[in-house]
Amino acid sequence: MEEREEFLISLATGQSSLRIGHFLRPSVTSPDGPAFAPPAESVNPTVTSLAGENLPLKVAFAGWKSPTGYWKNWVDRMFSLHNETWKQAGIHNAILSSTCKLHRQDDIIFGFAKRWCPVTNTFVFPWGEATVTLEDIMILGGYSVLGDSTLGPLGDRDVEKSLLDARMDIVRSGLKKASQKAWMEKYMNNGDETEHAAFLAYWLSRFVFASSVDNVIYKNVLPVAVHLPRGNRISLAPLVLASIYKNLNSLKEGLGAARRSEIYQIKLMAPLELVQIWVWERFPNLQPTPRSINPGEPRLFRWHQVKKNVIGDVLSIVDSDESKNQFCWRPYVQSHEFYKEREIWVLVKDGLDADLETFVRWLRVSELVSFDSDYTEQYLPHRVAMQFE
User: Fold this and answer.
1) Which end of the chain is more exposed for a tag (fewer CB within 10 A), N or C?
2) 82: exposed, middle or buried (C-beta count within 10 Å: 0-12, 13-18, 19+)?
């Protein structure tokens, strides 16, 4: 961040005045600076919603999973045994949130995909830019921003080998794939020392990093699954956000191809329910009535079993002056300990408090590497600095 004197416009009055401002780097210091303007097609008010369109586009939301009764029972049992370990590993809220039933609202997902800009990884509205950030992934999804990388060696090799062997046994049993159902039947309530790691492998495969093959235990999550039971924290939030950005880019591309009358099929593997909840949290004129939650419950519980609204033309609402005036730039400020009553200066250096280091990572421009390291996505929070003011 840098501090300098600039003419700043008041959101309340619309008037400008010369005063001290704080800018996330990289920032532009003059109208002729190297600012990137999103493509015009990302914010074309003449483009309406999907209502009435018959596009040759088939979308499978493979990463949007609903919990089963068996899964909820397994979570309850493992919670009683490993709650403190989950907190230490930074996965407590993420696991509990996987028991939420979230009703998908396709008009919101498709409508906002039309406002997505793949170059900046932001939603571009006539009145400004906004996006899903690491802050949202942590607070809504419950995933840790800090922790070990999945690129390095992880976990207990003996436990990992045991899980790999069990996975192969299921594949060879005649199912032809590592079925999640068979995995749960093998490990749930068996009291084996590997049950906790097997439980986490199921959670990671079903709710976090879904495989291109439906409902299987994903081999690549096993090292992570055996690392977490020790209370070791892994930086999952950047991996989840990378997958969301990639899927929004794919959906935007698919909408464009469908409009050109090209038959297009997409399988979206990311947990895109977090995008819909992001919309509900920030657009009061689009959200249904949230549930009241108890202290300590994950924020996602606000939307458990909440029925979706009948909206109509999503984009006409999103692009309106009403949305411009009502958009909630900081929906979590009243309920999260990261935000202080008074502003303070903090020197970013080694040995930062974990909460402060997390906040710094929310703000820092970076490159998000995917779980399998097969793609990267740009993370540009300086473009949406008002979400952190």
Assistant:
1) C
2) buried
